[in-house]
UniProtKB/TrEMBL annotation:
Organism whose genome encodes this protein: Acrobeloides nanus
Name of the featured protein: Carboxylic ester hydrolase
Signal peptide stretch: 1-18
Pfam family, one: COesterase
Enzyme Commission number(s) from the entry: 3.1.1.-
Record's keyword annotation contains Hydrolase: yes
InterPro entries according to UniProt: AB_hydrolase_fold, CarbesteraseB, Carboxylesterase_B_AS, Type-B_Carboxylest/Lipase
Length: 397
């Protein structure tokens, strides 16, 4: 009990509204919050409200459960700095875990707006989901000045959201069993954050009828799923999918692989007694060489046709291998299958339904040191640039 009291006292301030900048005080459904003014390096003015809870902390009995609405609080909550991010695996990125404060208490939204929106209202809204293959990444990586320059200064409110990653969010056990967890708790976070935006964004000058959902990579897959989910009807009005779509997996498919991995985790933690050995059967090895491995290329082409259910022949495989039989072409094969073709097909289907759709292509090769992979990942060679996620340096990072 003492610990809980200390935490509450740390988060909340006496209810005193600053006379110098009262616009930084907002009243939302759960209580009062205090944000702050942010001046970017380019001189643009914005107002930021960071680490606002949109749900109760998913800890204890709420771990692996769908999110519940945030509790109300007394006084004024300080929302001037990022709070903890959800746990994520930094070893697959250029970051170190020590660079971030991580916690299970991480279901927060961050809002970037401006004085015009706060005083007059009616501004369009971007609701953004970060990428990271559902295992890494956090909105607390984002640069405040970039978001003020690229969104708030243009009368567009930017909302970034923290959702549970990895086992905390996408644990996949057999839904037919009597489980002590809810299914798809991470996706339920996504939906809950959108519900919060619909309910509260007007308090920050946003128009709830002008909400665009946007995501990159894994976040783009979330956007793709939101487009077809009945849970999100009326929660958004436009969508931007960036290099993230329900595309093709060209690796050998293992039945119930994700469930097998989840069962292994439960077994390792002493929560399960049985284990499927099939979950170990899939590994992929790429040789570090400057030439194209002909045998591997043929296998890769065949896996593509198997995955999409194409009635292929040896001649079909040979045509694919011939098309990509150079280092400059082979390096694009996976991207073409996973990103380009699915995005093109989706845009084509939307166009055929007579709905407005725009397909963008990022080709700028002069990224330079603006995107550094860091010590955990080999640096990209010129032939690999622009690479997946590098366009993010232009408006997010």
């Amino acid at each position: 009990m003492t610990l809980k009291i200390l935490i509450v006292l740390f988060l909340l301030e006496p209810f005193v509204i600053s006379q110098s900048d009262p616009i930084t005080i907002r009243k939302i459904s759960s209580g009062y919050i205090r944000g702050r003014k942010h001046i970017s390096e380019n001189g643009n003015e914005g107002y930021v409200f960071l680490g606002i809870p949109y749900a109760k902390p998913p800890i204890g009995e709420l771990r692996f459960r769908k999110p519940e609405k945030s509790r109300p609080w007394l006084g004024v909550m300080n929302t001037t700095e990022y709070r903890a991010s959800c746990y994520w695996n930094s070893t697959a990125t250029s970051n170190f875990a020590s660079m971030f404060n991580m916690s299970e208490d991480c279901l927060h939204v961050n809002i970037y707006t401006n004085k015009e929106c706060l005083t007059k209202g009616g501004c369009a809204v971007i609701h953004y989901f970060h990428g990271g293959r559902f295992i890494h990444g956090t909105p607390t990586q984002f640069n405040h000045s970039f978001l003020v320059d690229n969104f708030a200064s243009r009368d567009v409110i930017f909302v970034s959201v923290g959702v549970r990653n990895a086992a905390f969010g996408v644990l996949n056990l057999n839904h037919k069993l009597n489980l002590s967890q809810d299914i798809n708790s991470g996706f339920q976070d996504v939906v809950a954050s959108l519900q919060w935006t619909q309910s509260e964004i007007s308090k920050f000058g946003g128009n709830k009828n002008k909400v665009t959902i946007m995501g990159h990579s894994g976040g783009g897959i979330n956007v793709n799923l939101l487009l077809v989910s009945p849970l999100t009807r009326g929660l958004f009005h436009q969508a931007v999918i960036m290099s993230g779509i329900m595309g093709l997996n060209v690796f050998p498919l293992v039945q119930d692989r994700n469930e097998g991995a989840s069962r292994y985790l439960a077994y390792a933690l002493g929560c399960a007694r049985t284990l499927n050995k099939e979950s170990y059967d899939s590994k992929f090895l790429i040789k570090d060489a400057v030439y194209v491995d002909q045998e591997l290329l043929l296998w890769y082409c065949e896996q593509i046709f198997i995955t999409i259910g194409y009635n292929y022949t040896n001649e079909t495989i040979d045509v694919c291998a011939k098309e990509y039989n150079s280092s400059s072409r082979a390096i694009d094969l996976a991207d073409n299958i996973r990103y380009y073709v699915p995005h093109f097909n989706l845009a084509e289907r939307i166009f055929q339904s007579q709905q407005p759709v725009y397909l963008y292509q990022f080709e700028y090769s002069g990224i330079g040191d603006a995107f550094v992979s860091g010590p955990n990942i080999p640096q990209y060679v010129p032939e690999e640039i622009p690479h997946h996620a590098q366009e993010m340096v232009l408006f997010i990072f």
